[in-house]
Amino acid sequence: MNVEDERSNTAITGDSNSLPKVLTGIPGFDEVTSGGLPAGRPTLVCGSAGCGKSLFGMEFLVRGATEFGDPGVFVSFEETEQELIANVSSLGFNLPELIQNKKLAIDYVRVERSEIEENGEYDLEGLFIRLGYAIDSLGAKRIVLDTIETLFSGLSNLAIVRSELRRLFRWLKEKGVTAVVTGERGDGQLTRQGLEEYVSDCVVMLDHRINDQVSTRRLRIVKYRGTPHGTDEYPFLIDEDGFVVMPLSSISLNHTVSAERISSGVEAVDQMLGGKGFYRGSSVLVSGTAGSGKSSLAAHLTHAACLRDERVLYIAMEESPDQIIRNMRSIGLDLARFASNGLLRLHAIRATSSGIEQHLVHFYKLVRRFQPSVVVVDPISSMERGGTFFDANSMVTRLIDFLKTQGATAFLTNLTSGDAALEQTSLDISSLVDTWLLLRDVESDFERHRVLYVLKSRGMAHSRRLRPFQITDHGIVLSDVTSKSE
């Protein structure tokens, strides 16, 4: 067995009792399908214009060639080779290099309606010869046909169309290649012809929708013969790296936990948490009204972690990095030096700048590249403005889970309105976090006084006191309160 054969075998998944599958290499998609697309069988990818069908097919081929050593053929009925190369160059796909190295072939088949004679002799024999030559000359194991409607655009005889469609899908199976066939969404059916979904072994539907002026993309596995698969709608996006599917099923509860404790940066707060602070890798939520001190607590944790030579990723949803550095300098915390030496990365972005899924993927990439020990999101409640409540809630759930799997301590602030219930968060995430601190203002003697208390902290003894505190020019200072019990 040569090296290329050995690498290609790594793309095949499944045991002797399950349907063999081919990994696509598309992040998240192989998880949704429990191993990828059916090996040696055709898969239909359908959807309306602009939903990403062609890109899905191209990434299937590129990742197959670069990650698994599977050569592939892209047959286009609409775009030329030069157009396809230009379209995907922004994603970092170097198609000319793959073509030169015999890893990829692009075949543009021009179909003109005027050139199609609808008669009893019409068939796809010429196309089969052309496809067969491309597959054999490259030793291709993957093929994409984009898009299938163009091939039959000049025919009105449905009997001929259906007969040739069946022949095409049967020919692809007999050839033993794993095929992706793209198709336009039909009126009241998945495809224009209404037959492709029945002769395909796997059907993937892509959808691009606009809700409240926010663009979202969804993927659904309509059918998958011979294997269980996820049947929900899964958000996906197309960014500078290509396709990314975000399955809710990726949320797991099997992450490792640490018994190590880290300081909050405020000694008195550590004392309220068993005298040792937060568990490393846990999730911490600080909620309170505007001006109650949430960002100041986040800055204390950031400062303390950087003093330990740990990296901190601070995601600011409402303030610029310079504004944060200036404001925290007023309470005696110099964050500028840590930003300069690379221990602190301040990343500012508005929640309304993009969709929820794009934010989540961007956060994933930031964490993987920077490898922080602590991640601050201030405030996480801003995500409500980036989509629906369900989208925002699921996004935060996945973010918390992801940070746990990375072993990073998550510190999330949540802005509450003055008339809201105190022991409630806007995104209903209080049950997900390990430690919940509540900051509130108490009015007395014509003054507003800040108070902090611990609503919960899993796995540790913690104080039940309400501790008044002040934000001074040398940080947060808690006052002692006489109490009969903790």
How does this model look, in words?
The chain is of the alpha/beta class and 486 residues long. The chain has helices spanning 3-9, 29-32, 53-67, 81-88, 95-100, 125-138, 148-151, 158-175, 196-199, 267-272, 294-307, 321-329, 336-341, 356-370, 389-405, and strands at 12-13, 21-22, 37-38, 42-47, 72-76, 104-108, 142-146, 178-184, 202-211, 214-224, 233-239, 242-245, 261-262, 278-279, 283-288, 312-316, 344-348, 374-378, 409-415, 435-444, 447-457, 467-472, 475-478. The chain has a nine-stranded mixed beta sheet with strand order 6-5-7-8-4-9-10-11-12, sandwiched between helices. The chain has a nine-stranded mixed beta sheet with strand order 17-16-18-19-15-20-21-22-23, with helices on both faces. Helix 14 (356-370) runs parallel beside helix 15 (389-405). The termini are far apart. The relative contact order is 0.11.
